[in-house]
Amino acid sequence: MKRFSFIMALPLVMLVAGCAGGKEPAAVGKGSVVLECSVAGGVDALTRAETKLLPDGSVPDKDDLKLVVSNAEGGVVKSYGRAADYDAPLFWTGDYTFEFSYGDADGEGPGKAWFYRSQPLTIVARKEMTQTVTVKLANSLYSLVLTDWFKNYYDEYSLVITTGSGYAHTFAGSKSEPLTETPVFVRAGTKLYMSGTAVKTNGVEVAFSNTEICPGTAACSWHTVTADLSGIGDGSLAIRLEGDDELVNVPVEIELNPDPKED
């Protein structure tokens, strides 16, 4: 009888010893999540309740997104250079943050799209859950449009839009080589300033004072900056930002060539 009792108790002792040794029983207290990810190819157009498609080549494939998984303390648990490599591994029960990104958060310029999504998830033991995630543009973009009045008044023009971080993009054109729309990506929440020069039809060259035209760009939005003339007499610019009813006047600072050209 004693021998029988000893044999029956042996597995219990081994089990207790195994737990005391700190070894994690496989899959106990763990769960997983299957990610169904997509990338939004549109942004807010601001003037109307509609979506405007992003420029060709600026929207990444969902498999090319970077994925970082962090625990509740902020420690990185898993990191993937491409989301395509994520294979729904087991995680211990608890709260996690799944961060999806593509591009450079601080990058500004044509083609500098920045996509980002932070998704909190709670892992439940012995359960496989499915989470749908849509990653959207996290920075902003703008483009410059000139009215016919502006283009008929100036033979040549070079307009510079500068962001709050100092990135400057020049839009140059003339009657013989009209300006083409070039979308420029910038940080969300940045100010925009405009300055530049232009040549009137009479040959007089003028300069425009550096003026704030946008107090802060909106994330996941496309701002259209329209340059018009505020008055035919002085040739100063009237800037309208899409989604804003107020005009911003960019005054003429000086006349660089006060003598009109001779025919």
Intertermini distance = 125 Å
Please state the CA-atom Rg, rounded to the nearest Å.
30 Å
Q: What structural category characterises the helix and strand content? A: mainly beta
Helicity, as a percent range: under 10%
Order the strands across the largest sheet as they lie in space.
5-4-7-8-9-1-6
β content, as a range? over 45%
Number of helices: 2
Number of strands: 19
Biggest beta-sheet profile? 7 strands, mixed
What is the global morphology?
A: elongated
Q: Note the run of SSEs as H and E.
A: HEEEEEEEEEEHEEEEEEEEE
Overall mean pLDDT: 86
Low-pLDDT parts are 1-27
Give a concise summary.
The chain is mostly beta strands. It has two helices and 19 strands. It starts with a helix and ends in an 8-residue tail after the last strand.
Model description:
This protein is 10% helix and 47% strand. It has two helices and 19 strands. The strands form four sheets. It has a seven-stranded mixed beta sheet, with no helix packed on it. The chain has a five-stranded mixed beta sheet with strand order 13-10-16-17-18. It has 263 residues and is mostly beta strands. The protein has helices spanning 2-20, 148-153, and strands at 30-39, 42-44, 51-53, 66-71, 76-80, 91-92, 94-102, 115-123, 128-137, 140-146, 154-163, 168-174, 184-186, 192-200, 205-214, 222-229, 237-241, 247-250, 252-255. Strand 11 (154-163) and strand 12 (168-174) form a beta hairpin. It starts with a helix and ends in an 8-residue tail after the last strand.
